[in-house]
Amino acid sequence: MIELDNNSLVFSEKSAKLNLLLELRAKKQIKNLNFINGLNHLTQVKNTYPFFIYNNFKLKPDLANRIKKYLAYIDCSKTYKDAKLTEIKLIKEALLKEKIISDFDFTFYKTIVSLDKALVPKFIDYYQEVNYFKQQAKQVILTKSKNQSEQIYSIYEMIVKSLEAEVDINKIKIVNTNDSDDYQLQKLLNDAKIPLTINKAISISKYPIFKQFKKVFKTRSLAKAKEFLQNNQLQYPEVINKLINVFNRYSDSLIEANKSIFIYELDQLVIKPKKYSNSVEIINVDDINVYSDNYYLLANYIDDVFPKKIIDNDYLTDKQKAEINYYTSEELNHHNLNYYSHLLNSVKNLYLFMPEKIIDETRLARLTLKREIITKAYKYNVSSTTYLDKINYLRYAKLRYKWLNYNQESSDYLTLDKFYKTEFKQFNPQFKGIEKATLDALLEEYTITGAKIETLKLCPFQYFLKYLLRFGEAIDNHYLFFGNVIHKALENLAINPDYDYRELVYNQTDFPEDIFYKRNIFNDVLIDIIEYIAFETKKLHSKTLYNKLITEEKFSFKLAENDRFFIKGIIDKIMIDTENKYYAIIDYKFSDKTFSVSEFNRGLKQQLPFYLFAYNHLSDISPSGIFYQQTSKNREKVYKKSDNRLNGIYLNDVEQMKRFDPNGESVLGLSYTNSGLRKSPRALSETDFLQLLDKVRDYIYEAANKIESGDFKIDPILSEEQNNTSISCLYCEFASICYLKNKNVKGVNDEVYN
């Protein structure tokens, strides 16, 4: 091994650093080395950094973190033409002045080393390359499976084969898995009674005790939050001690003044799992030890997944990165390919696995392995010798059902039939219910909304998972972001026609990362949409006699004193005719959404009628309409402009509707004739509106009875289908744990239904 000088600065990836330290320990050598990862930020940063950035530059913590890595590359003596680089320069100057950051002094080190292909900043040109990883000549086996689930079965069988060959269980390491892979491996190895440890850091947000703490911290005093930590420290030491350490870094006054920033800092914490011996271990790729004789089973050896591909969607574009001499996404991808090729070429016992299809067809990873690769095709079939008694029993139930109902026979059906036929009982995958004590704990003063009523109607099991167990956490996406920005702009424009919506658009600090590189284009699109919708809205407001406007009307109340539930929601806009005592409700929707009474009568399209019911309960005036306002432009066709008129139902009263929309230009389906209103299914009488309100009340109590009785069976709507998939299942996020699997809802003769 080449000797490293003491006090050397070593640029190193995590795995190379780990391996070097293990090698030095094995040789009983002590070296005073300073390690640094060239992919991380290269400035020394104080804990107060995110608070200072937010309070002085109004940048949220996620954005502050994203610009941190660029600070070392910004030259404060240089003038940048680019506005974003100029902004980062101003931020760096302020941070240096307040001594919140300090530049790393690379000139202090006489010897700077790139260890095993590590990335070195471009502004350092005096370093030597040192490679300790040794090229292995041993063959590599690549196992190809038809899909991701089959891939995990192939990894499981490789583990079993290794253990039967008396490989030490502590030497079997699985790498490059995702959460779904880990879950399936847990099921398989647990059934086979093979111990498994997942040695990956877990986000603190996954721990229920942290969620409880956040609720206390947000809604109560800082003293109460600290008291909560003390009361739970003994029971949950791993989580609570992490939180206490962060609290100790900051003064109470700083935390009190910046609660949202502090919560973001807490959300970034991870909990390291307990390490166990005598088990198969799932580890991160960067924890590979090339000096060991471990067996490394690397999953998902496919392009774009390994190594993860970096695209040009960071805070700075590739062009801006090049201007400050930072690595572009193309250069970083090239580096990753070189580094991981170098790493895998040095692993003695390496086994690769790939699924040939995930969503679409996959491609082999583009790494360059300078060793012979033997490719094997794999398909899971139950053999006469198996350790998966429970899983194979369930597999037999599924294959038996296919054979009896659809005459589909799997290649291992006969093998399974021989083992399980005599003890087989009819497999009923239906949800069996919930204990009353557990249900009561979940339902303490629960809420009912229009969306919840509709979800319950679509499928009670879907409601149970989404709203009671809260499995379906909302995932931010750019469509949601666009809708929120447009919503906020329209809300302010309704109150103040001179509101500067351009400033709102340009100053958004939480622009979605997945399309950040297109920010300038989308900002222009957002402004164009806001101008268009605002113009359409102003046409109505300039002519209507509905002279009072309420926006963002929040409500939360009980219908009866003994009800367990609250009626809750926010109405986007209410227009009121104060003279004739009528109101109309408008709900903003980014996507095109329609309303019809016939769908409402089937339990769908609940949101608008729910708002109608709530406001009618709180006011003493009468309804004249409920409408959706689409806040995006539809794709325009030749000779046909986008149609963003209000879409909903309205009162069949010509005089009142002329007060709302005098020319019939702003409401879809509304037009006037010499004799009155043109006939339309959208026009309802006052009696119809009253019946609608009564129906909403019925739906609310029907939902409450179903919820409080714990009736959450898998029961999707079967009467209306799209491509053999029920409308209940079409966008359901719980297909992976539902026996219908979102596919064969068409089979209404299934005995489970009957």
Short summary:
The protein has 754 residues and is α/β, with parallel strands linked by helices. The chain has 25 helices and 26 strands.
Describe the structure.
It is globular and about 95 Å long. The chain is of the alpha/beta class and about 750 residues long. The longest helix has 25 residues, at about 520-545. Mean pLDDT is about 85; it is low at about 740-754. The strands form seven sheets. It has a seven-stranded parallel sheet with strand order 9-12-8-13-14-7-15, covered by helices on one side. Strands 16, 17, 18, 19, 20, 21 and 24 form a seven-stranded mixed sheet that branches.
Keywords:
alpha/beta, single chain, 754 residues, 39% helix, 26 strands, 25 helices, globular
Taking the alpha carbons of the first and last residues, their distance comes to 73 Å
What fraction strand? 5-15%
Assembly type of the chains comes to: single chain
Helix percentage: 25-40%
The biggest beta sheet reads: 7 strands, parallel
- Report the total helices: 25
Low-confidence stretches: 741-754
Strand ordering within the main sheet: 9-12-8-13-14-7-15
Q: Would you tell me the overall average pLDDT?
A: 87
Radius of gyration: 31 Å
Shape by Cα distribution: globular
Number of DSSP-assigned strands: 26
> How does the helix and strand content classify structurally?
alpha/beta
Q: Secondary-structure blueprint of this entry?
A:
Layout: E1 9-11, H1 14-26, E2 34-36, E3 43-45, H2 49-57, H3 61-68, H4 83-97, E4 101-103, E5 112-115, E6 128-130, E7 140-145, H5 148-164, E8 172-175, H6 179-191, E9 196-198, E10 202-203, H7 208-219, H8 222-232, H9 237-247, H10 252-257, H11 259-267, E11 270-271, E12 280-283, E13 295-298, H12 318-323, H13 329-345, E14 349-355, E15 373-378, H14 389-406, H15 413-420, H16 436-442, E16 447-448, H17 450-458, H18 460-468, H19 478-495, H20 501-506, H21 519-543, E17 548-557, E18 566-577, E19 582-589, H22 597-601, H23 607-618, E20 622-630, E21 647-651, H24 654-660, E22 672-673, E23 676-677, E24 683-684, H25 686-708, E25 721-722, E26 725-726
Parallel strand pairs: 1-2, 1-5, 5-6, 7-14, 7-15, 8-12, 8-13, 9-12, 13-14, 16-18, 19-20, 21-24
Antiparallel strand pairs: 3-4, 10-11, 17-18, 18-19, 20-21, 22-23, 25-26
